[in-house]
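hey m, so remember when u said the tokens were messed up on ur end? i reran from scratch. heres the input so u can diff it against urs
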Amino acid sequence: MAGAVGRPRRSAPRRSGKNPREEILDASAELFTRQGFATTSTHQIADAVGIRQASLYYHFPSKTEIFLTLLKSTVEPSTVLAEDLNSLDAGPELRLWAIVAAEVRLLLSTKWNVGRLYQLPIAASEEFAEYHAQRDALTAVFRDLAAEIIGDDPRVELPFHITMSAIEMRRNDGTVPSPLGDSIPDTAIMLADASLAVLGAKLPEDRVEKTLNLIKQADAK
């Protein structure tokens, strides 16, 4: 009797993830952040997961698509939250604090420092125009909220850069600095506070609790 036809399966998963797609992203994140995009092959990714190279293409059509998926994962959740902030009956101080804290929380919630992938030369390629559009839109949210507080001032650029400093502060050793949960990491609170301080803005009351409520609303969508 002929053997079963289909993608070969492992006896046990080698990577963290609920399914093969997540395992591929986990292996790719490690390889991309540790050795770069150009020097990482799909064969290496497949081997790190424990699947055949052909099986990898069942989940992702190319290495570029894997990279794009990881890039987008660093901005999409905060983009959703930014849309919710537009309809929030709150001052710009709270809205800016919330978006800074939420983005830092996201950057600290992964095993590998995927936030740093945008610094790789390949990320500037036109192949990743979709990601650049999303990142530019998110950057504009930070800038516009800061402008609501201090008007036409060069400091409006600072909150986003302060937020991105989280990727320079965290490790890249496969350990999650701050797993997602019902709290805001201390680092996120610190950088969100700093983003308002550099603008000379007063810290909103109950900013942590209100931000957590906003995040829960965005996650429920």
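this time it looks ok to me. The domain at 67-219 is CATH 1.10.357 (Tetracycline Repressor; domain 2). if urs says something different then somethings off w ur setup not the seq
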